[in-house]
Design brief:
This protein has 373 residues and is of the alpha/beta class. The chain has helices spanning 12-23, 64-67, 84-97, 119-122, 193-203, 230-234, 237-245, 248-262, 281-284, 288-293, and strands spanning 4-8, 27-32, 104-106, 108-115, 125-131, 136-141, 143-146, 168-171, 185-189, 208-212, 300-303, 308-310, 316-319, 333-335, 342-344, 351-355, 358-361, 371-372. Strands 8-13-9-10-15-14-11-18 form an eight-stranded mixed beta sheet, covered by helices on one side. Strands 3-2-1-7 form a four-stranded parallel beta sheet, with helices on one face. A three-stranded antiparallel beta sheet has the order 4-5-6, with no helix packed on it. A hairpin with a 4-residue loop joins β5 (125-131) and β6. The longest helix has 15 residues, at 248-262. The radius of gyration is 24 Å and the shape is globular.
Amino acid sequence: MARRVAVIGAGNAGLVCIKCCLDEGLEPVCFESSDDIGGLWRFKEKPEAERSSIYRSLIVNTSKEMMCFSDFPMPAHYPNYMSHSQLLQYFRLYADHFDLLKHIHFQTTVRSVRQRHDFSQSGQWEVVTESSDGYKETHVFDAVSVCSGNFTHPVTPNFPGIDTFQGKCSHSWEYKDPDEFRGKRVVIVGIGNSGGDIAVEISRVAEKTFLSIREGVWVVGRMGSSGLPMDMMLLRRAAFMLVQLLPRALVNWALERAYNQKYDHRLYGLQPSYRYKFASARAELGLISLIRSLRAPGKRYSLKGGGSVPLERGTFFLCVVKWDHRLTCIQFVVLRGNPGPEFCTPVGGTLRAGYCNEFSVNQPPRGQQALED
């Protein structure tokens, strides 16, 4: 008798788990709380509580050659970097090809997963599920695979004074399109993939857009040399061997030199303090279009010891944070670009929001200028 495996979630990970269980002669039973497959990649007009949420213009940052399933290539007519709707269609093709849908129980929520009383001997799990009509059922499985994702609950930093901020504060989890920001003054906090994408979109319709970041970032485009996807160029055995064999300083110098030939990071106020090899891939891939939206920068300002960026009533404060939620010290270098957003990059100070209608940092000591050319 085949061992039974509970699979929680029918997103991309859940579908692959079902397929692998079938390949190994196991009996997968998948529980999906919604009415369809796709998980994160199912776009909806309004975010739903305890579910992942994406924005309308989202494009994947991994090329189709690198992200497709090894036993099911993506259709040849698909672009290198797909929209969320194209990726969802690919998952549907995958599920149909391997006949996976019959193993999925839709609109069924897993309420609890516990070891059975005889777990030390049987190794079995007790799973309680609830259907859309409220009917609860208890199942016994030999294994449980949790494929529910980690982007279901937005985390917003608790800045001092945010409760008195007179504008609107929202999280990127709620963002769908830039229409509600038309004519507004907007601060985007965070320079990850979603932060870069959203800042570009909003800057095209907002009166003024500020992108506030803790420190600089290495900007890496999706396309490499000869128009090939960047991940295809970098993620190779030969490249990994060179990284392991060559001195770290030499590898950093070569990569930083290559990226600075496209965009002088220091000129744009984006030069980070860390070397390239330690850069977070999550923060690197979404900013190419944002840099292109900036014209040649004019005055450059730095805040020494403190200062503020004044925002008028009705300003939106949009938080875009990484999943590890580390966002504490934010500092400013302002680059005035038109029509793109203004950059706020690190120099010194701790971010606060909501005092006298300002998005501000700690005030400087007496007699010290807050803003210097």
